[in-house]
Structures are given as C-alpha cells and as structure tokens.
Specification:
rod-shaped; 5 helices; SprA-related; SprA-related family protein
Length: about 210
C-alpha cells in the first residue's frame, strides 16, 4: 500500500457529553436558563480571558439559589474543570493544531460553564513511510494525552495505529526489496568473479608440446 501526501483534520469529541446532557437536563428545569451556546478558545491567553470574563459575569447571588440549584451548580463547576483539563492535555500533544472549541451552558447562577469540547488534530502522511510512522505516533500521543481518554480519543488512536501498521508494512517491504536487490548484486558479482577466476586459471596451465 502506498501512502500518499494527504492531510486530514480530525476533531476530538470529549467524552463529557453524556454527563453534559445530564447537566443540561437538570439545569433546564431552572427558569430562564440558556443552553447550548458555543465558543472557541484559540490559545491559552484567550482561555484565561474567558475565565476572567466568567468571573466578571453578573450572576445571581448563590445564597438565593435553592438547594437543588446549588447541587446543579457544583456539578457544572466540576464538569467545566474536567473539560478544560481534558482539552488542555490534547492541546499539549504534538499533533494538535489550533485551539480548543467548547460547548457552554448557562448555570443557575447566570455564568457560562464548559460542558464539552474538542481539539482539531492534524494527521499528516507522507510518501516516506518512516516519516508517516513518526507523524502517526504524534497523533496517538495527542489522542491519549488526557488521563482519562474518551471513547472518541481511543477510536482516533486506533485508526492512527492501523495507518501506522500499514506504513510499517510498506517500510518492511521497501527494506526487503532493497535487500533482495543487494543480494542479487552480490550474487552476480560473485558469479562474475568465479568466471574470471576460471578463465584466468585456464590461461595459466602449461602447454603440452609433443615432438
């Protein structure tokens, strides 16, 4: 199999959506809650800016929240921290390109919390199998960077491993082809040497002269 010079872009969907759906369901029971807003944080500085904006948002006085709302809020804060840590781990990987994209929901305190996210990852292949293998190793490392990789992360890593195995097979085939060519060259050289030696030996034999 020949690996072409193509480039694909994959997004990692964090495995927090199941919990996020639960949070949204719970939060939606509160009056006036806004759901499913989306934002993109392109780098660390924008992430810090977003956190400051969250801190500066005018939210409800948490002391006025019901016990149920306070429980919902505590869970949202946990999910927000987990999502951001998960995506930060992906962003530290060698194959990550661009910033993390987050899905937000408004908590009962009026502040937006991240409930899901993804990081774009670039898979680069090359006509050189060794280079392709190196690139795919970076993809696998990026996919499995979080302490708790999601099913989607594991799936992407598995696909990269399949591509890497094919590249390794191609590399092995190239090695075998070169070895065969080398063996053939050596054999031909030895045959030629033996022929030359035999020819030289026949010329050195003494001539028998009869009178």
């Amino acid at each position: 199999m020949e690996i072409g010079n193509n480039t694909s872009l994959y997004g990692y969907n964090v495995d927090y959506f199941s919990r996020a759906n639960f949070q949204e369901q719970a939060v939606s029971n509160s009056k006036g809650v806004q759901q499913d807003t989306r934002g993109v944080e392109n780098n660390e500085s924008s992430s810090q800016t977003n956190n400051k904006q969250n801190q500066n948002q005018t939210g409800q006085d948490t002391t006025k929240l019901s016990n149920e709302q306070q429980v919902q809020l505590a869970k949202l804060k946990v999910v927000d921290a987990q999502v951001r840590a998960h995506e930060a781990a992906h962003q530290s990987g060698p194959a990550a390109v661009g910033g993390a994209s987050f899905t937000y929901t408004k908590g009962p305190d009026g502040i937006m919390y991240a409930i899901g996210g993804e990081v774009p990852v670039q898979i680069e292949t090359s006509s050189d199998p060794q280079e392709t293998i190196s690139n795919l190793q970076g993809v696998i490392a990026t996919a499995l960077a979080p302490a708790d990789p999601s099913p989607q992360d594991i799936s992407i890593a598995s696909k990269a491993r399949v591509l890497m195995m094919k590249a390794q097979q191609e590399l092995t085939q190239e090695f075998n082809d070169k070895k065969t060519d080398s063996d053939t060259y050596v054999k031909n050289a030895l045959d030629q040497y033996e022929q030359n030696s035999n020819s030289s030996d026949s010329k050195d034999e003494p001539l028998e002269i009869t009178a």
